[in-house]
Specification:
Blueprint (H helix, E strand, L loop, with lengths): L24 H9 L13 E5 H7 L28 H9 L5 E2 L5 E2 L3 E3 L4 E3 L5 E5 L3 H6 L7 H8 L8 E5 H7 L15 H14 L6 H11 L6 E5 L3
Antiparallel strand pairs: 1-8, 2-3, 4-5, 6-7
Length: 236
């Protein structure tokens, strides 16, 4: 089942040099074992914490390539726990303001939802999309093209980090498409700090790169935001 989302609490993570990290227990243990002159090496499953601006600075900046991309290369909306509700439905159930009724094949009836992208409420699951915060095409461009099919499937159905998938209005999601923050920000500007902070966290979680325009846009936007520590469990 999907972990509970605290919508306005920004958590996250990072692969970064030891000198920059605010260590968690696992990080501190690695630090004690590593020679003083070497940076700590982080591995999938490890949890790390870092101020978001430092997290952004630690991301690899590289040009992106869409070559070979197909959405079909990310198997999505799977039912990993075999409870009859796929990943999309799990997000809708978790984020409902008013819980819907769950029918056969996890059909959702009634309920209400809040779309943070455009500050709107909806009374039907059919009016919502579940957005991959970092779109599948963007993930492909910035590192996922080298992953295995199973790794891409895990990314596309990530219920372990509540920032990865978010229920939003269909209109806002289809306006976003596969754009990064240099090209698109949510229509509701008070959400921008949350959005870019979560974007950095998600890229950190999967050790995805950022392109130069993306890096500049994120850096500029974060100057107007709190330098919030983000904590994330590395997935890749």
């Amino acid at each position: 089942m999907r972990l509970a989302r605290t919508r306005r609490t920004l958590i996250a993570a990072l692969f970064a040099p030891l000198a920059l990290l605010i260590p968690t227990t696992s990080t501190a243990a690695h630090a004690a074992e590593a020679p003083a002159h070497q940076p700590v090496r982080h591995v999938p499953g490890e949890t790390v914490t870092l101020p978001v601006r430092d997290a952004l600075a630690a991301l690899t900046v590289a040009d992106e390539s869409r070559a070979g991309y197909s959405r079909d290369k990310f198997k999505h909306w799977t039912d990993a726990d075999k409870d009859g509700c796929n990943a999309r439905a799990e997000v809708l159930l978790e984020e409902a303001v008013t819980a819907p009724e769950v029918g056969a094949k996890c059909a959702l009836t009634g309920g209400s939802w809040y779309s943070a992208y455009d500050d709107r409420y909806f009374d039907s699951a059919s009016k919502l999309d579940v957005d991959h915060l970092v779109p599948l095409a963007e993930a492909w461009d910035s590192g996922a093209s080298a992953w295995t099919a199973k790794e891409r499937e895990a990314y596309a159905n990530d219920l372990d980090d509540p920032r990865a998938l978010i229920a939003v209005s269909a209109a806002s999601n289809r306006s976003k498409l596969d754009k990064d923050p240099a090209q698109w920000l949510p229509p509701y500007s008070p959400y921008w700090c949350t959005y870019v902070t979560d974007w950095v966290a998600d890229k950190t979680r999967y050790q995805l790169s950022i392109d130069p325009a993306e890096q500049a846009a994120l850096a500029e936007r974060l100057t107007a935001c709190p330098d919030q520590p983000i904590t994330v469990t590395l997935a890749h």
